[in-house]
TrEMBL record:
The gene is fabG. The keyword Nucleotide-binding does not apply. GO terms for molecular function: 3-oxoacyl-[acyl-carrier-protein] reductase (NADPH) activity. Coiled coil: none annotated. Its EC number is 1.1.1.100. GO terms for biological process: fatty acid elongation. The lineage of its organism: Archaea, Nitrososphaerota, Nitrososphaeria, Nitrososphaerales, Nitrososphaeraceae. It is an enzyme of class 1 (oxidoreductase). This is 3-oxoacyl-(Acyl-carrier-protein) reductase FabG1.
Length: 249
């Protein structure tokens, strides 16, 4: 099922990773006016670009006029985030949707073994990144009194299991950020939510945990469908919510 994003401008931060690529593809299939995808590595951009270009050779997408734009952006640098949003507004006039897929994991140590640098890395990539992109995207969304924002937190942000204090704390902070922003913008008809996935079935996770039961892991395609739904008008009654996505784990 493709949701209606006709004439909308969609920003996918971190849209070239294992999950981000699936999200970017689903948005393109929904035929919005434009999908802007941030990236860091050229190889990730190339892989995503080739995959999305292939969509336009499919019969179902032969009339798709969606613009696909890639923007190299370090989401941890405030000036780059501000420039990203400003350039999109200058070109398209507004941003309707933000799907923020930026994030990272570090674990395997007790809190007394965790260094300050490791702690700060998790806070930056999982929480500061979400703060910065939310901060700068809210101004144009509030101006038009419309917007959909989706962040990816983690099941660890709600219920910690130990040995990942920096990661789980950063993801818990993201949940509170979402809930706080919801209260701040609810009069502007802006929806902001986050999902709380357990382990996602990616090649990097398989390499890190080769003896795990991959069948119980969440498939990126399934999460992508949920993310796109939460960015659509079909989910407008859902706001300020942290949605558990554990599958059969």
């Amino acid at each position: 099922m493709y949701h209606n994003f006709k004439d909308q401008i969609i920003l996918v931060t971190g849209g070239t990773g294992a999950l981000g690529m699936e999200v970017s593809e689903l948005f393109v299939k929904s035929s919005p006016r434009a999908v802007v995808i941030t990236y860091i590595n050229d190889s990730d951009r190339l892989n995503t670009e080739e995959r999305l270009d292939a969509l336009f050779s499919d019969h179902e997408n032969e009339n798709n006029k969606t613009e696909i734009e890639f923007a190299r952006t370090d989401i941890l640098k405030e000036n780059e985030v501000q420039n990203l949003v400003d350039k999109i507004i200058d070109k398209y006039g507004r941003i309707h949707v933000l799907a923020n897929i930026v994030g990272g994991y570090f674990g395997g140590e007790t809190v007394d073994e965790t260094t300050e640098q490791e702690w700060e890395k998790m806070m930056n990539i999982n929480l500061k990144s979400a703060f910065l992109i939310t901060k700068y995207i809210l101004k144009p969304m509030k101006m038009y009194r419309f917007g959909k924002i989706l962040h990816v937190s983690s099941a660890s942000g709600e219920s910690a299991i130990g040995m990942d204090s920096a990661y789980s704390s950063s993801k818990a902070g993201l949940i509170r950020l979402v809930q706080s922003v919801k209260e701040e913008v609810k009069d502007f008809e802006i929806n902001i939510n986050c999902i709380l996935p357990t382990i996602i079935d990616t090649s990097s996770n398989r390499r890190a945990m080769p003896t795990a039961d991959f069948q119980k892991w969440l498939k990126p395609q399934d999460l992508a469908r949920l993310i796109v739904f939460l960015c659509s008008e079909d989910s407008k009654v859902i706001n300020g919510t942290a949605i558990k996505t554990s599958g059969y784990a």
